[in-house]
């Protein structure tokens, strides 16, 4: 299965155009949160309508999974916690999103919401505990979780780690195969940071963020057992059944399984 990961597009519509154009070359596209941009002067409700139209178009042409990020929070629930309520409209388009668990090829995919307080955090904990039982019958288990783990190169800003400590604990407890993340834009570009980490058997990917019409992205081929990262700063690749080496080897040409 070929998977494309993008994240933190932050209402960069040309980057959504790129993702939509690339989608037919992949079996699954994952957009791991932060669709909106709270710093953009355009009202968030307008941004939401535009992004929903993009997601609707992408869902019509291939398999798509979407999660929320911290920029996507648009209301408070009854307990006062911030939530991305518009993800319900994403679900209404037939797109798996926050709180959903789906099968994709031979993998179980758990899609986690961005949590802002104890209620949603406990909901995520419950979702992972339930899915751990289901994952026993799956060949692979993937998580879509906007924040990367703490104390990881994927959460390094260049000055400090800014990851999710609870995610570290859940990875230690359940040992998923892959966590598809985002959130820390700088991580792949800072000394000591990276787009990839391995915590025990768990691979973690955070493609970062760049300006321009093409987003940073990670492409995976599960049959080839390879994952590659592409950016304006260069490209690198890891082999999923081999130990992680740092820095990952640079790519001078796309791997054979990549669309040309």
Helix content: 10-25%
Mean pLDDT: 97
Structural class: alpha/beta
Separation of termini? Answer: 17 Å
Strand percentage = 15-25%
> Number of helix segments?
5
CATH class: Alpha Beta
| Shape assignment | globular
| CATH level-4 homologous superfamily | Metallo-dependent phosphatases
Total tally of structural domains: 1
The fold-level CATH name is Purple Acid Phosphatase, chain A, domain 2
Q: Rg to the nearest angstrom?
A: 17 Å
User: Largest sheet, described in full?
Assistant: 6 strands, mixed
What is the tally of beta strands?
Answer: 14
Structure description:
The protein has 260 residues and is of the alpha/beta class. It has a single domain, classed as 4-Layer Sandwich (Purple Acid Phosphatase, chain A, domain 2). Helices cover 24% and strands 24% of the residues. The protein has 5 helices and 14 strands. The protein has a 6-stranded mixed beta sheet, with helices on one face. It has a 6-stranded mixed beta sheet with strand order 6-7-8-9-11-10, with helices on one face. A hairpin with a 4-residue loop joins strand 12 and strand 13. Helix 1 packs parallel to helix 2. The protein is globular and about 50 Å long.
Characteristics of this structure?
260 residues; alpha/beta; Purple Acid Phosphatase, chain A, domain 2; 6-stranded mixed sheet
Offer a concise description of the structure.
The chain is 24% helix and 24% strand. With 260 residues, the chain is α/β, with parallel strands linked by helices.
């Amino acid at each position: 299965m070929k998977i494309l990961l993008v994240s933190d597009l932050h209402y960069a519509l040309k980057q959504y155009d790129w993702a939509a154009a690339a989608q037919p070359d992949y079996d699954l596209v994952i957009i791991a949160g932060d669709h909106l941009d709270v710093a953009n002067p355009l009202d968030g409700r307008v941004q939401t309508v535009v992004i929903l139209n993009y997601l609707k178009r992408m869902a019509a042409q291939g398999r798509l999974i979407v999660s929320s990020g911290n920029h996507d929070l648009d209301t408070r629930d009854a307990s006062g916690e911030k939530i991305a309520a518009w993800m319900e409209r994403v679900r209404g388009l037939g797109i798996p999103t926050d709180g959903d668990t789906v099968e994709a090829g031979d993998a179980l995919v758990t899609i986690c919401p961005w949590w802002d307080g104890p209620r949603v955090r406990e909901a995520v904990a419950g979702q992972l505990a339930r899915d751990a039982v289901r994952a026993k019958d799956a060949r692979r288990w993937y998580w879509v979780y906007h924040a990367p783990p703490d104390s990881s190169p994927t959460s390094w800003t260049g000055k400090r780690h800014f990851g999710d400590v609870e995610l570290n604990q859940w990875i230690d407890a359940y040992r998923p195969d892959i966590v598809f993340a985002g959130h820390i834009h700088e991580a792949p570009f800072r000394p000591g940071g990276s787009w990839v980490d391995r915590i025990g058997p768990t691979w973690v990917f955070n493609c970062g963020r760049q300006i321009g019409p093409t987003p940073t992205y990670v492409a995976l081929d599960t049959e080839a057992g390879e994952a590659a990262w592409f950016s304006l700063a260069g490209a690198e690749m890891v082999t999923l059944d081999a130990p992680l080496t740092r820095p990952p080897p640079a790519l001078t040409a796309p791997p054979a399984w990549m669309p040309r």
